[in-house]
Design a protein that fits this description.
The complex is a heterodimer of chains A (about 220) and B (about 220).
Chain A: E1 2-4, H1 6-11, E2 18-21, H2 31-40, E3 45-48, H3 59-64, E4 68-73, H4 80-87, E5 92-95, H5 98-109, E6 114-117, E7 131-134, E8 137-143, E9 147-158, E10 163-164, H6 173-176, E11 180-191, E12 210-212
Parallel strand pairs in A: 1-12, 2-3, 2-9, 3-4, 4-5, 9-11, 11-12
Antiparallel strand pairs in A: 6-8, 7-8, 9-10
Chain B: H1 3-12, E1 20-23, H2 27-30, E2 42-45, E3 49-53, E4 74-81, H3 84-92, E5 98-102, E6 105-107, E7 112-113, H4 128-134, E8 138-141, E9 145-146, E10 149-150, E11 152-153, E12 168-170, E13 174-177, E14 184-188, H5 194-199
Classes of the chains: A alpha/beta (about 220), B alpha/beta (about 220).
């Protein structure tokens, strides 16, 4: 694990990269990283996230700045700009049921090829997908998802990169931290090693590649 | 009593002590205001919280404690927080005793459509498909009609949320269940006759001999 400045960490991300970004309606999204992506003007990004928040909030800022060419998410209903760009064909949007999305990411990080789920069987979501029967029940085969980078937000990080999360800001963060080639963590608080009890570490230090220094 | 209050109050009567319950946004959220006295219900927010409480007093909001709509909430004593994989494991794994969801259409076989209107509204399904397929009991809170057209239809014209039939539909006019895959009128709202329900419903309804009024 290395500690980098915000600008140096975001400079690692090339145009066209695929990004898993933690957060749920902006709660638990690494907001400083988002702002720096906008400032550095990264283009052609693929964003994998639960939602695209609201205009002016979290991932919504990337959408507004036209930095995103593809979104894989479960919900875009609260960001009219995402819907407008999707309908205008400026941005590709793949909608995935939330439970399926998080499990596809989990599979990607846990060394699995995909998952079987009953969610979506017999609906539009099933179109073009393989269906299998196990013990008499029908499931869709949903492939694993990985990304070039995971951009996660934690409540606490220690100097080694152990991460702990708070309240409802945990959401997709620890699962995404397992499923990307490079993990960049932004923490609300950075504390000395030992101050996070081992029982309260959710993302272990070896998973984190870069911790962003406080500004 | 307005339509939303009738629906929320009636659905609250389905709550039992110790249940784990997920409420969707809109009318379903209001069910939490009418939990019967003397029972304790655990409400789940699918963004990773069990023990969701009422919104906090002005000035007491915490930016990291919200419901699935992003609105500030409180956490009741005994609450727990967890990641999204656990949250949907609870939902798909049959640990959520009951979910209350909104609806665009429910048909006479109990099929639900509530996540998109092709060409008009494509917000994404969020957690609705997992909840409709995975929760032990699926209850729909929905106004009976929209713009003069019945939302209780013969067959859903909108894309389905799940092929699994719902368990109970509550509107401001009626309570409808689906035993054997057939829409059956269980109760009418106060002051609403069976004839009025039938006139406002496109679906074919089974009508038992005795249809009591909702006891609100």
């Amino acid at each position: 694990m290395r500690t980098l400045s915000l600008a140096d960490a975001v400079a690692l991300i090339p145009d066209g990269a695929s990004l898993m970004i933690g957060g749920f309606m902006g709660v638990g999204t690494p907001e400083r990283v988002i702002d720096e992506l906008v400032r550095q003007g990264k283009r052609g990004l693929t964003v994998i996230a639960n939602d695209t928040a609201l205009p002016g909030v979290g991932i919504g800022k990337l959408i507004t700045a036209d930095l995103v060419s593809k979104v894989i998410a479960s919900h875009i209903g609260l960001n009219p700009e995402t819907q407008k760009k999707m309908i205008a064909g400026q941005m590709q949007v793949e909608l995935v049921p939330q439970g399926t999305l998080i499990e596809r990411i989990r599979a990607g990080g846990f060394g699995l090829g995909g998952i079987l789920t009953a969610t979506g069987v017999g609906t539009l979501v099933a179109e073009g997908k393989q269906k299998v029967a196990v013990a008499g029940n029908d499931y869709l085969v949903e492939p694993a998802l990985r990304a070039d980078f995971a951009l996660v937000n934690a409540f606490l990080a220690d100097y080694l990169g152990n991460l702990s999360y708070a309240l409802t800001a945990r959401n997709f963060n620890p699962v995404m931290a397992m499923a990307a080639d490079t993990v960049i963590a932004e923490a609300d608080n950075i504390v000395p090693v030992g101050l996070i009890s081992p029982d309260h570490v959710v993302t272990p230090a070896p998973i984190v590649d870069y911790l962003i220094a406080q500004g | 009593m307005d339509a939303q209050t009738i629906i929320a109050k009636r659905i609250a009567l389905e709550l039992r002590d110790s249940m784990l319950v997920n409420l969707g946004i809109g009318i379903p959220t209001q069910v939490a205001n009418y939990v019967p006295a003397g029972i304790r219900v655990f409400f789940q927010s699918e963004n990773g919280l069990i023990g969701t409480g009422a919104p906090p007093a002005e000035g007491m909001q915490h930016r990291l404690l919200t419901d699935a709509g992003g609105r500030p909430v409180t956490a009741l004593p005994g609450a727990s927080t967890f990641d999204s994989a656990t949250s949907f494991g609870l939902i798909r794994g049959g640990h959520v005793d009951m979910t209350v969801l909104g609806g665009l259409q429910v048909d006479q076989s109990g099929h639900l459509a509530n996540w998109m209107i092709p060409g008009k509204m494509v917000p994404g399904m969020g957690g609705a498909m997992d909840l409709a397929s995975g929760a032990r009991r699926v209850v729909i809170a929905m106004q009976h009609s929209a713009k003069g057209k019945s939302k209780v239809v013969k067959a859903c014209s909108l894309p389905l949320t799940s092929v699994r039939p719902i368990d109970l539909l509550v509107t401001e006019m009626a309570v409808i269940a689906f035993p054997g895959g057939r829409a059956t009128l269980l109760e009418t709202a106060p002051g609403v006759s069976v004839e009025q329900v039938l006139a406002a419903t496109e679906a074919e309804l089974e009508v038992p001999q005795h249809v009591p009024p909702m006891s609100l």
